[in-house]
Amino acid sequence: MDLQEPVFTLDDVLWERLLELTGGEAALCFQCGTCTATCPWGLVRGETVSVREFIRRVQLGLEATEALWLCTTCAQCEAYCPRGVSIASIFRALREIAWERRETPEGLPSLLWSLYWNDNTWSQPPSQRAQWAKDLAIPVFDPQQHEILLYVGGAASFDNRVQKVAAALVKVLRAAEVAFGILGADEPPSGADVLDVGHRPFFEELAAKTAAVFRERGVKRLIALSPHSYDAFKNHYPFVSESFTPQHYVQYLAELLELGRLKPLLSLEATVAFHDPCYLARHNEELTAPRRVLAALPGVALVEMVHSGADTLCCGGGGGRMYLETAAGERFSDVRVEEAQAALAPTVGTPIMVTACPYCIVCLEDSVKARKMALTVKDIAEIVALTI
Ligand code: SF4
Ligand code: SF4
User: Fold this and answer.
1) Is 110 touching ligand 2 by the criterion CB < 6 Å?
2) Residues 244 and 128 in one domain
3) pTM beyond 0.85, yes or no
4) Is-contact 136 166, C-beta < 8 A?
């Protein structure tokens, strides 16, 4: 035996903890490595993110490497796993262990503190949350008068670019004569970012408070601007009420169009490449609603990119990556805008890349600007607003 070789021992306690946090899911992995080959990090870096490596490290009681925080929880790998492992959930659980051991990257604790003190991740005073709507005269949600609550979320409340998406959606809802309200400065956080960075106890605390607000305010039907908030409400929230129905706003717009309540009349003469947000297409298997909306718009032609639908390519903004530095040349969104340009190149009409997620909008538009591309990035709400 070579005495220089390190000797590893199994860490049953840590392994049991991972099994507990994943409901046994981690034990399903049989270390085949198929997922690793499909991870988009392979497109932008020499190495991919490997869930099996992190599982092995836990079994051996080793610290996770910094790469643990690279996962965008995009779930692209999950589609290829022969064991059906919920890999994004395993990454969240691995991160929960890292929080327990205080092994988190610089920047993330302050994100959580901002949510704790300000109810938002932008370190902005909670009183400013409704500033985006100050000239729009949107009423405060009243269950006696309103059919839906428009849940705007933190990005649309505080990010200048995403505020335009929220304003466009307001215009569309008004054109369809939807009775809706917002919670304004009282809008609570969904906690979706906390879920993705793996601080489950804090997420549960936030979710319980927000669910209580929805109950008190009599919210039955809610439409969320962000697929991340929608996913949190739909799949991870505690009981709100028997009739509580969260939807992503494109699902609601598809319904409005099909009911004839929303009537787009103006022709756009545009060709659009639709970028499916991971939290809509993969985490919630919603592939048709955005395409039904786009198909209903006069003068809009849809082209599909090389990765589309359930095989969409992540913009790079999920899993807390919006709040962590990504080196130039390692951004998924750079690859994605090139894919859009390639899909749109043979077409006529104004080339537009369309999506339906605040994080995607920000990441994709940053890449278009950095690469000085002749490509416009719009949210579906903005495209619909141009046709009414
Ligand atoms: S969830 Fe996405 S980023 Fe994370 S390991 Fe899987 S493919 Fe890679
Ligand atoms: S594809 Fe599934 S079973 Fe194979 S290494 Fe990845 S998680 Fe494990």
Assistant:
1) no
2) yes
3) yes
4) no
